Predict the structure.
Amino acid sequence: MKLWTGRFHKELDQVTNDFNSSISFDSRMAQEDIEGSIAHATMLGECGIIDPAEAEKICKELEQIGKELQDGTLEIDPQAEDIHTFMEGELTARLGDAGKRLHTARSRNDQVALDVRLYLKKQCETLYGQLHGLVKVLCEKAQQYSGAVMPGYTHLQRAQPITFGHHLLAYGEMFSRDLSRLKDAWNRMNVCPLGSGALAGTTYPLNRFRTAELLGFSGPTHNSLDGVSDRDFCMELASDIAIAMVHLSRFSEEIILWCSWEFKFIELDDAFSTGSSIMPQKKNPDIAELVRGKTGRAIGDLTTLLTMMKGLPLAYNKDMQEDKEAIFDACDTLHMCLTAFVPMVETMRVLPENMRKAAAKGFINATDCADYLVGKGLPFRDAYKITGSLVAYCMEHSKTLETLSLEEYQAHHLLFDSDVYEAISLERCVNGRKVLGGPAPENVSGEAQRLLKELEANSSIHN
Ligand code: ARG
């Protein structure tokens, strides 16, 4: 039975009913719907808008419905139009007139805006905890490998020596920005739209501060049209999730490269790798690949939300029912990806010898060789040119900067002396990069400690 039967002469066509219905995906907000209704009924009772005794009956029964849904004694009717309609129907079936009074001074429009906020606040908290765990793992690993020399790349070409710890902390920085973005999103969505009604508020003397307080919001929204039609909080969260997924995807791409035979910088634990049905030797980084692949979904979810909202006049339009599947999928995707990704990173075996070997090839100390000449008084641009011709000479004669004789060095410039070998040693190149933000082992340890302290001070989304 539909809510609007007074105005209509026919039942909704079955296929259309299914098309119109959101119960298949909004039933996951059942507990939030109950929470919101309890706060609304409590406030209605306190303000004398409904009989306080009746308000109490409503609250008790809603709690009971919540319990029955949780333990499975009550099932959600898939024929209901949405979770709000189902709850009101169930309550009325149990309480009669008292149930029918719950919707006084409320519309499904402010109700759904409330439920989604309550639900997403919890999602933010969960995702925050997972990302927090990831940054912690990265800091600990970075400390462990603060001195592991590896090649740093630009254009995927060996460029300059860095440390593995430094590389990991680059992701630590990205994910800690994701944490602060989540916190921002949580704070901005932390306002209560209940009382906005369908669009124009209500004539009942509601205490909107009270409902906001009961539900743990910082306060009520301040414009009824905005209260029911704002979905910024969905778009903002989807955008934060898309960015975090892009970070995970870049990291995944590197993990995939690193565990190939061409790199062999790491080996993934068997528990986070898969085999091949035909090639017995294969060990595949499927988890990292799936994370990279699923990033497309998260970007798609953000696009769905932005496109769905862009042409909507104020206030509520049914288009907005489409917000839920997109934002729920985005949350689920990041949640699932982090669930698999964090332990995968935690358990990966790092192979610093192979990193060191790779760093010894590709002339990644050429900049340091040029800097050596600068130290002897040559202008950088000249030093750069001479080092370039040294590299070309090495390639012609299958040598490296380390294996060139001093005579060969001096044939290129007389400023070269026997201390050049020390100056271009990989450890020296890395250790010397002590500038703030640089890859030197002592910097990495210091930055890891700083990040860990920051994590401790921001242990939850609420502080
Ligand atoms: N199921 C609807 C949604 O998710 C609830 C709001 C319905 N409001 C309306 N005026 N039809 O958006």
Observations:
- The chain has a mean pLDDT of 95.
- Strands lie at 149-154, 157-163, 191-192, 219-220, 266-267, 349-350.
- The first helix runs from residue 14 to 20.
- The chain has three domains: 5-106, 119-185+225-357, 360-453.
